[in-house]
Amino acid sequence: MSDISDRSDRSDTLKKEVLMRYIFTLLALLALGWPAAAALPAASFLVPKETTRDTGYTAIEVGLDGMVYVGTAWYGGSAHLIRLNPATGKWEDLIDAHKLTRDTGVGLDSQSKFHAKILVGADGIVWAATKQGNEEFTNRPEYGESAGGFPGGHLFSYDPKTGQAADHGILKKQEGIMGGAIDNARRRIYYVSDPKGHFLIYDIAGNSVRDLGRSGPTPRYMGIDAKGRVFVVGAPLPGDNAPGAITMYDPQTDRLYQLAVNVEGDLKAYGSPYVIVMNADGATLLGAAANCKYVLEYDLSSVRLNNANSFANGAITCRLAAEIKPGDTHAGTLGKDGCFYFNSGAILYRYDPAARAADEVGIIAPPNNRDGATVYSQGAAAGPDGTLYMKFIYPYQVLAFDKLTAPKGEN
């Protein structure tokens, strides 16, 4: 494990850094013609250049140690799992995927992305999984057309207490790993493979994996409730008037269900969610769709199963909970205040499930953004003090919104 210095020429203290970035953001917003009052102050932590090709995905989470764990992408090369100390601005390189696996794949067949959501167990152990560096969607060697092809995504763990990293092997041959949810009670981790979309169950104690078959499209986000049921966006249902489906895994029956979505409201407005999070009450699943103008609420008590072998063997009720301005949405998380935070383009939204209302928190303006007003969000996580951490690319950086999601009276 090596210590990597941050490249943001930060001040001696985090407070000075926040002030500096806030001033920079104000100037950038004024230049773009946005109201200066809409600026969100944030500290910027540039991801070390030697760990990435300036991009990354959903892989971000805050550990029990308060450190921010981030996965990088390096197309045609090796992805890295790195750790940020937000108090000092220092980065540490924890895992070089190719070095730990001794994989020698190149191009599309490399272990080039930590894409799946980083997971943290109740014991503090951090879990991360890789996928292939494949953005050529018409040429997929992992389907078997190439004899060599991508060997398959690896599952890794890192123990902050000992500083030891471990490779737990390939979860599914020639498939990358996406999604991610952890069941601490059952000591299981759930993923979906890419590109074929198989639902995978990894047993932590037994270091073994089971494949339950196809669950639907490969997701960025998965939700798990108090019963251990896992929810993920499902495959489209047949029929012009079918709004969509949610796939549910029930550990009691150990099987997958395709739940047809029954929408309360205008069916034309429904769009399958891209970002989903489990509400703090464990009774509702919250979602936001890319370029959709609504926040969605799924009532988990409404789940009905018919145990048929048909494509849709259950149903779930969804309501259109709040209106938002449509924009590209890739990042979201549940704040420490119980609100759902997500982006819609450059706007950061906060949805309050108790009030069933969404409000615009402010405008996100990552420093040094090469595309000007275009904001590419990728992932989000909330720290123990309520600080919201969000990943952005071009350049690859983590923004820290100080105590933004802390409960009222604590920020």
How does this model look, in words?
This protein has 411 residues and is mostly beta strands. It has helices at 14-32, 97-101; strands at 2-4, 43-46, 60-62, 68-71, 80-85, 90-96, 113-114, 119-120, 126-131, 154-159, 164-170, 176-183, 188-194, 198-203, 208-214, 223-224, 230-233, 245-250, 255-264, 275-278, 284-288, 294-305, 314-323, 332-334, 340-344, 347-352, 357-363, 377-382, 388-392, 397-401. The protein has 2 helices and 30 strands. The longest helix is centred in the first third of the chain and has 19 residues, at 14-32.
Helices and strands in order, then pairings?
Blueprint lengths: L1 E3 L9 H19 L10 E4 L13 E3 L5 E4 L8 E6 L4 E7 H5 L11 E2 L4 E2 L5 E6 L22 E6 L4 E7 L5 E8 L4 E7 L3 E6 L4 E7 L8 E2 L5 E4 L11 E6 L4 E10 L10 E4 L5 E5 L5 E12 L8 E10 L8 E3 L5 E5 L2 E6 L4 E7 L13 E6 L5 E5 L4 E5 L10
Parallel strand pairs: 19-23
Antiparallel strand pairs: 1-6, 2-30, 3-4, 4-5, 5-6, 7-9, 8-9, 9-10, 10-11, 12-13, 13-14, 14-15, 16-17, 17-18, 18-19, 20-21, 21-22, 22-23, 24-25, 25-26, 26-27, 28-29, 29-30
Q: What's the overall average pLDDT, rounded?
A: 86
Strand proportion:
35-45%
Spans with pLDDT under 50 lasting ≥5 residues? Answer: 1-37
Using only C-alpha atoms, the radius of gyration works out to 21 Å
Which structural class is indicated by helix and strand composition?
mainly beta
Give the neighbour order of strands across the main sheet.
16-17-18-19-23-22-21-20
Number of helices: 2
Give the helix level as a range of percent: under 10%
**Biggest pleated sheet:** 8 strands, mixed
Number of distinct beta strands: 30
Shape: globular
**Gap from first CA to last CA:** 34 Å
